[in-house]
Amino acid sequence: MGEKKKRPSGDALGREANIEMLKRERRANNAWHKLKRNKIAMAGLFVILFMVLVALFAPLLSPYPPNKVNPGQAYLPFGSPGHIFGTDDLGRDLLSRIIYGGRISLIVAVGATFVGAVLGILLGLTAGYFGGWIDSLIMRIMDGMFSFPFILMAMILITVIGNGVLNVTFAIGIANVPSFARVVRGQVHIVKREEYCNAGKVIGVSNVRQLFLHILPNTMSQIIVYATLRVADAIISEAFLSFLGLGIALPTASWGSILKTGRECLTTAPHVATIGGVFILVTVLGFNLLGDGIRDIMDPKMKQ
Amino acid sequence: MKRRSVTTWILAASLAAMTLAGCGSSNQSAPQQDTTTTAASEPATTAALETKAEEEPSGEIQKGGILTVVVPSSPKTVDPKDHTTDYEADIIFQVAQNLVTYNKDYTDIIPLLATEWSVSEDGKDYTFKLRDDVYFQPGKFQDGRQMVAEDVKYSLERIYNECATDRICREFFESVEVVNDFEVIIHLKDSCGPFLETLCDIGNGILPKEEVEGWGDEFGYHLVGTGPFMLEEMVADERVTLKKNPNYWGDEPNVDGVEVKTASDNSQIVNALVSDEAHIGMYLQGESIQRAKDAGLLAQAPATSVTMIRFNMQSGPTADPKVREAIIKAVDIDGMVSGIYQYGEASRIYQPLTFLSWGYQDKYDSLIPEYDPEAAKALLAEAGYPDGFTMTMYIGSSTNREKMAQLFQYYLSEVGITVEIKSSTMADWMSAVTGSYKDSVVNSYGITFNGTIDPYAYEEKFFTSNNIDSVSNAGGYADDQVDEWLYAAYKETDREKRTEYYGQVMEKVMNDNVGIFYACEARNWGIAPKVHDSVVRADSRLLICTPFNNIWIEQ
């Protein structure tokens, strides 16, 4: 009896086709694939990656030490031999200061967002989950912090604790806390009413387990989107504080301090402010584009 | 979240606009060190400064018009007793007058409300004969009565008794005796070298008692005196208006009035000058100097000031004389000065005294250790710091001071010394620095000190041990011999002998390497071409109608 060539049955055909279709659908729904399809978001990601790589390899890429002064070569214009971005008021190479300044600006921005996110998440989770007087207490404190303009609060903190990379990071981070807390609390209010949370409660899952294993992961998408946008804000905040002379201590380069130096010579040596401003602009734009892209992917209301 | 994102976009766009604004003016010249005019002062140390304002007036004098002056900060009170800033002193100077004042070149003292004076042999009594044609401006509590000797007594004793700042050599001042309506004798406890110069301080302006006591605490907004202009209106943080005094005893002012406006941003001051909205812009700094120069408006004069770095003389590593010498040797001071003052707005100095002072002797310039980083390293090793150390530099936040601190930091890093820059507001800086000799938190600090042409105004303030708890000698320099010389110079009235004493002090403190005295910052004004007979003097006083000039505006 010759072996009969097996023909796929209609069911089998359907199953494989279904698997393939499911795979395609999963791939299509995969966040990374969705992001890849968003060209503007990818441009933002590319900018961020570029800045991060430049910051990481600053010692290799920088042609001069960033703080090396040369008063005899002050205000060399853009494209000068040996100083492609020119020099600043003390004759320091602007390219080197931009490279090292990017490192500081990114560290401060990411660090401040991290500080704000961690504290804000903890407070938001607690307030949203327990509700009642705990919620009222935490959120009224947050409202009190909200009543100060964001940058004013950072300035007050800097005045109290002094300037420097860590202090600026901390100050901007603290000023970030209320907004994170509010976002997280709102999400917790939605998530904690889901069936699986009620089920957890019924089977006696502890509050901590419920908060960190069931609720937090389901609020992460909103937090990630929000954090991406806050990084952009934090870059501007650092620049603003340094511009006012309240930020990074002298002579450490940051994009804000370069902008401040440029303000002193806006008419006679405009390249200094221009270069500092362009790097802030491009990086902030990068984070905003990426943030908008991620939001488009993760916001269920925008799923089309 | 969407809104937050939009805000961020707007901020980013604002930054872009700012950077584009920066691009828009690229046709302007880069700052240059060289200037086209000759030096305003004799010493070779003086950089070439613009002296446009000292040109002789040309053409027929035209009367009328309001002189508009723009300054960076608003006067708060114009009571001579309470004023603290130059902006206030400039207003007071137009309204109230002293017995004596400085001449045009700021080299000598000339009579103002006094016609002549004499000093007793023991130097304790100063007899002043007063003008008999001086009348106060009419006010709320008197109708423009004649000024008499009693007013001199009242005004000087008020400053002696009530002024928080010593403006009258308080330690030696005793009383004022009225001989008759137009003659007074000022009695001192002992002879006092700088006394006559002290009387030029605008705090010692002669005032009518009725007005001072009538207005009480509000006199600071209703000043009345004998000057060429009357205070008309003071609007806080906006403007002060003055009008011509019709009963002025001297030459009638050429302008009908003066309006002093406030513009905190130097660019605004130059813009106001260029657009013909203002006639004089005072206290220009940084890039604005270049802009005023490019527009042909700049007028400069070397100032009676000393800008310096002082060391902690009693605590921390700088208490060691070898370390101080090493630090001075490590700094290329010429390079530092050219790096800080890129618009030619200062002159290099070497000693803690302005070269405009009659006590200045250039032979002490050479006592400053020469720039030699290798010798500095050797000295540090000798002092027990072969690998260097970490020290602090406290500065009040300003562009020039920040540049200085960064250059200082860089030069010291070349010999292994790490400098931590502590930049803060002036109030915080003063609080940190005052009395800082007691511990090693403040190892060095930067300061500009304005004085007069009397060495007393510098050396006494900087080096007497009586002053170690004030900001002028916060480094805590204390030396018995120097104290003796300073006291002898203070009591002496003969200028030659005083010069000798101050020379001895100078030699000692220069050899003790108490600091780096690096610049005399210039007075930088912008003056519109239509303003004639203006004078920019070393003390930066706003001189409108004086015994030696009378500004007029080309209509």
Summarize, please:
Chain A is mostly helical.
Describe this structure in words.
The complex is a heterodimer of chains A (304) and B (555). By secondary structure, chain A is mainly alpha-helical. In chain A, 73% of the residues lie in helices and 0% in strands. Chain A has 12 helices and no strands. Chain A has helices spanning 10-29, 31-37, 39-56, 58-61, 94-130, 132-146, 150-161, 165-191, 195-202, 207-243, 255-263, 271-298. In chain A, helix 3 (39-56) packs across helix 12. The model of chain A has no long low-confidence stretch (mean pLDDT 87). In chain B, helix 6 (266-274) packs parallel to helix 7 (287-294), helix 8 (321-330) runs antiparallel to helix 10 (373-382) and helix 9 (333-340) packs antiparallel against helix 11 (399-413). With 555 residues, chain B is α+β, with helices and mostly antiparallel strands. The interface between A and B is large, with 48 and 45 residues.
Notable features of this structure?
heterodimer, A: 304 residues, mainly alpha, 73% helix, B: 555 residues, alpha+beta, 21% strand
Topology:
The complex is a heterodimer of chains A (304) and B (555).
Chain A lengths: L9 H20 L1 H7 L1 H18 L1 H4 L32 H37 L1 H15 L3 H12 L3 H27 L3 H8 L4 H37 L11 H9 L7 H28 L6
Helix pairs in contact in A: 3-5, 3-12, 5-6, 5-8, 5-10, 5-11, 6-8, 7-8, 8-10, 9-10, 10-11, 10-12, 11-12
Chain B lengths: L1 H22 L42 E6 L14 H10 L4 E3 L6 E3 L2 E6 L5 E6 L18 H14 L10 E8 L2 E6 L6 H4 L10 H7 L13 E7 L3 E6 L12 E6 L3 H9 L5 E2 L5 H8 L3 E4 L3 E7 L9 H10 L2 H8 L5 E3 L24 H10 L7 E7 L2 H15 L4 E7 L1 H8 L10 E7 L5 H8 L16 H12 L3 H17 L3 E7 L1 E5 L3 E2 L12 E2 L2 E2 L1 E2 L2
Helix pairs in contact in B: 6-7, 8-10, 9-11, 13-14, 14-15
